[in-house]
User: What shape does this take?
Amino acid sequence: MVRVFMLFFALSLVTDAIASDSETTYKFYCAQCHGVNGDGTGPNVTADFATDPRNFTKKEDMAKLSDADIRSVILDGGPALSKSALMPPWSKTLTSEEVDGLVQVLRGFCNCQGAP
Ligand code: HEC
Assistant: This one.
């Protein structure tokens, strides 16, 4: 019994570490535009932005994007999906695992699942 408990405790430490790693990645690379809380109002968004960064807390918008859509736009940038070039490509900066983690962070902001 004690062993089972210790196993769960160890597992929860591991999952916490994964979650906080992805949150750190988000804060480092994405929050300046998309905002610490994901609402699209980061400090680098100037009045000259032709397109506002996506507000990840808007459930109805985020539910339209599949996880694969989110992955592509993160890896290849806005223009890859006919979106604004203000959304940079990250394929040379982030690992595939980091991108997966970011998809989960964004799903946490919208509290929604993607379109299949
Ligand atoms: C320099 C500012 C900037 C940074 C940094 C940035 N983004 Fe964006 N992002 C944008 C803008 C602007 C859009 C809106 C593009 C559009 O709607 O045409 C956008 C859109 C998106 C979208 C929605 C695309 C869609 O199909 O609607 C996702 C998902 C996204 N960004 C994820 C991220 C992630 C994850 C990071 C960090 C790795 C990040 N962005 C960093 C500016 C930024």
